[in-house]
Fold:
Amino acid sequence: MTDVDHSSWHKVTVRVPFASAKHASIAKQVIEVDKELQPQVVVRTIDVEGEELVATFTTLTIRLARLASNAFLENVDLVVRTIQEFGEDAERRPAL
Amino acid sequence: MPGKIRKRSPLKLPDKPYIALGLEGSANKLGAGVIKHAPNGSTTVLSNVRHTYITPPGEGFLPRDTAQHHRQWAMSVIKDAIEKAGISMHDIDCICYTKGPGMGAPLTSVALVARTLSLLYNKPLVGVNHCVGHIEMGRQITGAQNPVVLYVSGGNTQVIAYSQQCYRIFGETLDIAVGNCLDRFARVINLPNDPSPGYNIEQEAKKGTRLLPLPYTTKGMDVSLSGILTSTEAYTMDKRFRSDGRADDGDKDIITPQDLCFSLQETVFAMLVEITERAMAHIGSKEVLIVGGVGCNERLQEMMGVMAQERGGQVFATDERFCIDNGIMIAQAGLLSYRMGFQTPITKSTCTQRQVFRTDQVHVAWRA
Structure:
């Protein structure tokens, strides 16, 4: 992997703001579990910066950049909707 | 002989009530269920909610669209299950989800929700094998002691028997599952997929009057189904085939879709009964438990019943709430695992597609 020259590859950065750093961290932990389907041609990083979820996709082709970032955003949407639906109730009672 | 030596079950009575949420989405059914294990040893289904992705007639369901359906319905199905159970998410002990086998994208969509809930509420995750879920729910509902299990659905066709903490596969399909065979034929003759193609084939088969010759392909303990599908489809190209089911002016030698549904069912079900019987004879069992979506088929239950009776045994089957994919079976198998100390760390909570996560790879710690 270290021998591959990524300088001519495409790079997409996606920043998603969350209501709190905790929620952004939850999203990171949930989404990063599944590996990219083609790790040789799609290099993904996911980090939390403050209250933002930041993902970068370094890909061999533009098509792969579209696919990877699209799939990522679909997953973020699902996590966000889950937090939206259950987040308040989860905070209501402290976990025993 | 199984069951002769009564071993003590490693699963002790629970010290307190345990409640589990189960999430299922390996095919086109999205299910959420809540189950409770009480200190007196009883098991109660608190809720069992399901929504099915139904495609137009002639179309099957593809991974991408199925995953989209699950993502769309996940929140309302889960909320419904929690509300119907009359509990709060805080009350549950673990979140069980289908790890596999199944379709990749739909499985992962459900796993994402499971992981998020796990982190939000700080609850452990339990990854469950879909097939083991069917078996454990079948055992729980019917009370069958140590049956030969015929697991038949759109994605799986296996004959399973329990031995030494493992559900061993005695026989299986060499190519496609029986439900897949039936569903694909339903598409060829344009049957609706509502409520399920298999159900509609069953209804059409009742109107069939002619048994057409189809290849009968049992291979020892296994079956092969793709050839039968091709042969049945070939009949629709036969010049005797009448897709509207009506004869032209007294012409008796016609083939109707109903005849084909009837012939297909009779042939594949006879094959399944045969391989089940082989397993029963092999291990000396008198009980058959039919699980999986195709297990709802009353003709299959009837044919299996005839065979079992001839052997002095009996057939156990569940109704459509439990034989069709559902969340409660995942909760049941998951909670049994959890009570034996099993958990899935979030970093390992991936999904495994079909063929790779086999029924016999699960360590059945909760049985003797």
Chain B has two domains: 18-136+323-361, 146-319.
